[in-house]
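Q: A small favour: would you put together sequence and structure tokens for a protein?
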Amino acid sequence: MSSFPDIFRFNLGQYVDQFVKWLMTDYGEVFDAIASGILSLLVSTEKILLWLPWWLVLLGILLLGWKAINIKAGIVFSLSLFLVGTFGFWDLMMMTLAIVLASVIISLVIGIPLGVLTAYSDRFNAVMRPILDAMQTMPSFVYLIPALMLFGMGKVPAVFATIIYATPPVIRLTDLGIRKVPKEMVEASISFGSSNWQTLLKVQLPQALPTIMTGINQTTMMALSMVVVASMIGARGLGLEVLRAIQRIDIAKGFEAGISIVFLAIIIDRVSQGIAERFKYPE
């Protein structure tokens, strides 16, 4: 009596499994095309980052930190990346950054239009809300299973799983930002003869930009948090070094790779927050 009765057992997972296999069978060419596009973007980004001289990257980070925050922050950021280079992880850091940038670019291309649509349609918002809840609360390891089945091992499934995990924040905050725009401003724009499209581009999006930038920041941080998970399916980078250190119980290597990810996360977070602050309108 204490155990749950087997008569009520419902194997939902088998239907999901059949659905994924149906996608592989009937739409394999579509997913091959998607994989080709993602791989092209990723490889191009990685080649550019690896081509840049290390000293030029440090100088760029110094200037970026200076403009986004202040000169002290720029110096600290540059020294942090220099320290990562002394660990011997410079190329791996660039590979990690390429995965993050490619994932964020695709997430923004998907997420911002969906966020706009969610803000404009309450019905679409009602449909999207539980989907976004599931995307954010589902354990990230679960995304690796369909990603592997649809795209195989390598960088593409890693980017695909990262996109699923990182897209919800930018959708939610784009929706929130547009909904927070004062109705009086929207009504004034329409009364002066602006179309809905002009009102969106010239009034709502500029006013919502600080909130959208916060969404971009959160999406970027969530993409970076997936680097260790993505290394399990063939994505090279700092995450793979952390995984190898765990397998070998190598404390020194694990600490160096882990602190390198922390440095990268802090720099991305502080710079994106600094840029977002510059878009805020004065009270």
The chain has one domain: 10-51+87-278. The chain has 13 helices and no strands. The mean pLDDT is 84. Residues 166 and 241 are 22 Å apart (CA to CA).
